Structure formats: structure tokens, C-alpha cells
From TrEMBL:
<keyword id="KW-0378">Hydrolase</keyword>
<dbReference type="GO" id="GO:0016020">
    <property type="term" value="C:membrane"/>
</dbReference>
<dbReference type="GO" id="GO:0004348">
    <property type="term" value="F:glucosylceramidase activity"/>
</dbReference>
<protein>
    <recommendedName>
        <fullName>Glucosylceramidase</fullName>
        <ecNumber>3.2.1.45</ecNumber>
    </recommendedName>
</protein>
<feature type="signal peptide">
    <location>
        <begin position="1"/>
        <end position="18"/>
    </location>
</feature>
<dbReference type="GO" id="GO:0006680">
    <property type="term" value="P:glucosylceramide catabolic process"/>
</dbReference>
<keyword id="KW-0443">Lipid metabolism</keyword>
<feature type="domain" description="Glycosyl hydrolase family 30 TIM-barrel">
    <location>
        <begin position="99"/>
        <end position="446"/>
    </location>
</feature>
<dbReference type="Pfam" id="PF02055">
    <property type="entry name" value="Glyco_hydro_30"/>
</dbReference>
<dbReference type="InterPro" id="IPR001139">
    <property type="entry name" value="Glyco_hydro_30"/>
</dbReference>
<feature type="domain" description="Glycosyl hydrolase family 30 beta sandwich">
    <location>
        <begin position="449"/>
        <end position="510"/>
    </location>
</feature>
<dbReference type="InterPro" id="IPR017853">
    <property type="entry name" value="GH"/>
</dbReference>
<dbReference type="Pfam" id="PF17189">
    <property type="entry name" value="Glyco_hydro_30C"/>
</dbReference>
<keyword id="KW-0746">Sphingolipid metabolism</keyword>
<keyword id="KW-0732">Signal</keyword>
<comment type="similarity">
    <text>Belongs to the glycosyl hydrolase 30 family.</text>
</comment>
<dbReference type="InterPro" id="IPR033452">
    <property type="entry name" value="GH30_C"/>
</dbReference>
Length: 516
């Protein structure tokens, strides 16, 4: 009888856990979690931690999705260890940069996709990204006018030679889709804040008279077209403000280096480092300040391009005090990433310009989304880029489109991409890729203001990545990635009162959290 009850209890626990994620396997090497109007998994990270207890959260290729366990420190106390063993030393007195936040991009394509879901599913989807039972995102990126992730190519003033921008207006994509979703994100998470990035100026302001292809603004900084382009930014910020949404930040523009590529397939605007420096100094900076969008009211970020361009775009601008005074941070994209060299560039830029924060403003995977559902190495790509960015002074990370359809669109330039969440409007369901759960290891554990603390390794095997943070409510968080097909043993000093030993699962990410 007792045995039977215990057996039932076991079944019950097991069942309730299995219904958490509704697993489905496509062609990928691991599963996605399916959400529809009837069921959807939620994420739970416990705020309260008893003294001398370690909370452990695992996500791996095989089966775990932010799976929690807890253990007393005493039970994982390290036995004496040999000299060739993998050791992680955490130094909580060595304080480094603070976190600004994590999030994703509200592209036209993303907000159009989200809007294909029923009203209830829209709420559930937004909770999955922004609420306490989801990723707790606090950052949103917004394309100013069109980007490739859209159903059409456009700017917010396509009236030729409209030199007073009297025809400037927000698009239907802004008013009908994006604004309600930005407001919903802010309602779900009051800490939510957004930054804007423009892909291209109106074609009539450009030498090539097109939104795509190679070409910059007509004439030079300080002249009519650059002044108009600055005015366009101010009009945009004010138009959103009038609609009840205040922007937190702005980048000088998306990927200025791409605008030099002949035949570039989608919206781009060429600007050299010198042109951006002079645009900020002569046009954009003064226009923002005059309109009340000075540094206290708007966080201006430069570069917003790949790490292979970050040194030239940063140094030319920040070495000029008149331009630099308008700037708060340096944004970067992941497409030229290469471990470890591109991350070493981040550290180099930080060392040269320590007063300007580094921040990842775009990362994403390519391809027709339905062909990559449940692909573990895409989750590893995200995890490594986020962790190594943080280890090299970055203050946050921004995913590309919050959602794509199963084709990886919509995208007027046919630049099909993958996303953390893929929406299937026909079935009224969406799929959470493994990226979603790997993101949770950062977004849910490192709130705004968390401080990185020093950690060093001895005898670290290849393909293991580690970082450590103290949160504003005084928890010490370790994040450990193992991309090996075998488990990895390690000993950790400086985490608990005594050295502890742990084993990382194969192809996994693990967080270990303790109250200080
Ligand atoms: C910031 O905005 C407030 C309110 O609009 C304004 O009074 C103030 O002058 C602005 N500050 C700067 C530096 O632009
Ligand atoms: C999307 O839903 C439709 C209708 O249920 C289905 O036929 C199709 O296979 C689904 N796509 C994916 C990638 O699951």
C-alpha cells in the first residue's frame, strides 16, 4: 500500500515535470519546446537561497532545460585535489563592469509575426520573453524605418526632396504593431528599455539614390543632408514620445561599413569612421542636445557594427573630445566573431576607452528557420558569444528578431534567418529553440547592475568557458559552459566557504548560485 502510494507520487512528480516542456523533435539533434493556447512551459529561478546551499541549474543537449537542483555546500566539498586538475578561482574582491541588460530586436518581421498569434498567445509569447516566468528581457532594439526583416523596403520619409521633413511619419509597422508591443513589454517588465538603430536614410538623401547597395549621404557632415539626417532621428524619437514610448538609447546607425559593399542586398548607409565622427560632432550631437535628448536623456552608442570594425570606428571618434562628449557606449555585432581573437579586441577597446561601455547590439543565426529547429550548436554559439563578451567587458547582449516564421522571414531581401522563437501561425503555435534556454542562464541570473568579478582557471580543458558575477541582491553566480562530448570535472575556489567540486554534463551550460 505504502509502496503503491510512493510509486504514484513518483509518477505524479515525473508527469508534472514532463508536461513542463512539450518536446518535439525536428531534424535538429535535440528538441524544441512547443507552446500553444493550451500549454507552454515556464521558467522558474528561485530568489531565496538558504545559507551554505548551492542552487544549480542545467541545460544540456540531451534533456535538461534550466533544470534545478540544490545541494548543501558540505556535500560537494572538494577532497584534496591533484596538481593537474581543472581549477576555477573566483575572486569576489576583484570587481569589474556592471550589466546593462539583455534582449532582442522588435523588427517589422518580428512584430508582424507576433501579431499573427491570437490575443492570448501574444500575451503568453511576450511573457515568455519579458516576464519573471520567462527570460526577463529588459532590452529591446528597434529598427528606425525599414531593415531587411520587413515585408518592404522603406524609410519614414520617402517623399523626394522633402527638405523640411514635413512628410516624415511613423509607418504602420510602428503604430499598428511595434508600439503596442513595446508598451506591453514595458508593462510586463517595468525595467524594459529600448534603443533605436537606423539601417538607411531615405534614398533621396543618398548618393546612390537607393536604400540598398553602396552609398552614403550626399555631401559632407555639417552640410544640408547630414543636418537633415540628424533631424530625422530627432523627429523619430519625438514621434515615439508623442505616442507614449520614450527611447532609452540610440546607435549612430546600423553597420556603417556594410554600406560600402557594391550590390549590398538590403538597407544600408555607408559612413567612414571620420564621417561618423563629424556627423556626431557637427550634426547629430548638437541636434539631440537642442531637442532635449542630451546624454542624460538618451544613451548614444557608436559603431553598431562587427568587431572587425570596432577599433577604427571607436578610436577615430573617441579620440576627438568634441565628438566623444555625446557618446556613452560602443555597440558591436557578432558576425565577425572568432574565439578568442575577436573577444581580445573587445578587451583592447575597453582598455583604451574604459569610460565607454561595450554592448552587443546584434547577434543571430542564418537560414530557413524550420530547417534548424532544435539545433544544439546554435545554442552553444549564443552561449559562448554572450559569456566571452561578458568576460571581455561587454555589459549586455541583444538577439536579432524576437521571432521569425518557419521560413525565417518575412524578409523582403530574402535574407532568411533563424530565431530563438519560431512562430507557426497556421498551427497557432510557436517553438522555443535551445537558444531560449541557454539565454535564460544569463538573462534570468544577471539583472541590471550585476557586477562581474574576476575568475581565473588552472589546467582548463579546451571548450570550457566560465564567468562569475555578483548580483545586486548579493548572490554569487557562476556560469559554466562545456561544449565537449564528455563531462568535465572541476574544483572551484572562492565560491563557497570551502573549495567545492562539480561535474559539468557533456554539451551543457550550468549555473551555480550561492547567497553571499
Ligand atoms: C532631459 O529631458 C528633460 C525633460 O524633457 C528636460 O527638461 C532636460 O532638459 C533634458 N536634459 C537634457 C540634457 O537634454
Ligand atoms: C506548421 O503548422 C502546419 C499546420 O499545422 C503544419 O502542417 C506544419 O508542418 C507546421 N510547421 C512546422 C515547422 O512544424
Amino acid at each position: 500500500m505504502i509502496l503503491l502510494t510512493l510509486f504514484n507520487l513518483f509518477l505524479l512528480l515525473h508527469v508534472s515535470k514532463a508536461t513542463d516542456c512539450v518536446k518535439r523533435t525536428y531534424s535538429g539533434d535535440t528538441f524544441v519546446c512547443v507552446c500553444d493556447a493550451k500549454q507552454c512551459d515556464t521558467l522558474n529561478v528561485e530568489d531565496k537561497i538558504e545559507p551554505n546551499v548551492v542552487h544549480i541549474y542545467d541545460t544540456d543537449q540531451k534533456s535538461s532545460r534550466l533544470e534545478k537542483s540544490e545541494t548543501p555546500v558540505d556535500s560537494i566539498k572538494a577532497k584534496s585535489y591533484s596538481s593537474n586538475q581543472f581549477v576555477l578561482n573566483v575572486d569576489t574582491s576583484d570587481l569589474k563592469q556592471k550589466i546593462l541588460g539583455f534582449g532582442g530586436c522588435f523588427t517589422d518581421g518580428a512584430v508582424i509575426n507576433i501579431n499573427t498569434l491570437s490575443e492570448d498567445l501574444v500575451k503568453q509569447f511576450m511573457n515568455d520573453y519579458f516576464s519573471k516566468t520567462g527570460l526577463q528581457y529588459n532590452i529591446g532594439r528597434v529598427p528606425i524605418g525599414g531593415s531587411d526583416s520587413s515585408v518592404r523596403a522603406y524609410s519614414l520619409d520617402d517623399t523626394e526632396f522633402d527638405f523640411d521633413l514635413s512628410h516624415f511619419a511613423l509607418a504602420e509597422e510602428d503604430t499598428k504593431y511595434r508600439l503596442p508591443m513595446l508598451k506591453l513589454a514595458q508593462q510586463i517588465n517595468p525595467e524594459f528599455r529600448a534603443f533605436g538603430s537606423a539601417w538607411s536614410a531615405p534614398a533621396w538623401m543618398k548618393v546612390n539614390h537607393a536604400l540598398n547597395g553602396a552609398g552614403g549621404l550626399i555631401w559632407t557632415p555639417g552640410d544640408v543632408y547630414y543636418k537633415l539626417w540628424a533631424k530625422y532621428y530627432v523627429k523619430y524619437l519625438n514621434a515615439y514620445l508623442n505616442e507614449g514610448f520614450k527611447f532609452w538609447g540610440l546607435t549612430t546607425e546600423n553597420e556603417p561599413a556594410e554600406g560600402f559593399r557594391q550590390g549590398y542586398a538590403w538597407n544600408a548607409l555607408a559612413m567612414t569612421p571620420e564621417e561618423i565622427r563629424d556627423f556626431v560632432k557637427l550634426d547629430l550631437g548638437p541636434a539631440l542636445v537642442a531637442a532635449g535628448w542630451g546624454k542624460e536623456n538618451l544613451t548614444l552608442m557608436i559603431n553598431d557594427d562587427n568587431t572587425n570594425d570596432i577599433e577604427s570606428y571607436s578610436s577615430v571618434l573617441l579620440n576627438d573630445a568634441e565628438a566623444a562628449k555625446y557618446v556613452s557606449g560602443i555597440a558591436y555585432h557578432w558576425y565577425s566573431r572568432n574565439y578568442p581573437s575577436s573577444y581580445q579586441i573587445l578587451s583592447k577597446v575597453h582598455d583604451q576607452y574604459p569610460n565607454y561601455f561595450l554592448f552587443s547590439s546584434e547577434a543571430g543565426e542564418f537560414g530557413v528557420a524550420s530547417q534548424f529547429l532544435g539545433t544544439w550548436n546554435r545554442a552553444e554559439d549564443y552561449a559562448i558569444d554572450i559569456l566571452e563578451g561578458l568576460q571581455h567587458w561587454s555589459t549586455g547582449w541583444t538577439d536579432w528578431a524576437l521571432a521569425v516564421n518557419t521560413a525565417g522571414g518575412p524578409n523582403w531581401a530574402k535574407n532568411w534567418v533563424d530565431a530563438t522563437i519560431v512562430i507557426n501561425a497556421t498551427a497557432q503555435e510557436y517553438y522555443k529553440n535551445p537558444m531560449y534556454y541557454v539565454l535564460a542562464h544569463f538573462t534570468k541570473f544577471l539583472p541590471i547592475g550585476s557586477t562581474r568579478v574576476g575568475c581565473s582557471v588552472e589546467n582548463a580543458p579546451a571548450n570550457v568557458h566560465t564567468t562569475s558575477f555578483i548580483t545586486p541582491d548579493n548572490k554569487l553566480v557562476l556560469i559554466l559552459i562545456n561544449t565537449n562530448n564528455d563531462h568535465v570535472d572541476l574544483t572551484i575556489n572562492g565560491f563557497a566557504k570551502v573549495a567545492v567540486a562539480t561535474t559539468l554534463k557533456p554539451r551543457s551550460i550550468r549555473n551555480m548560485v550561492i547567497a553571499l
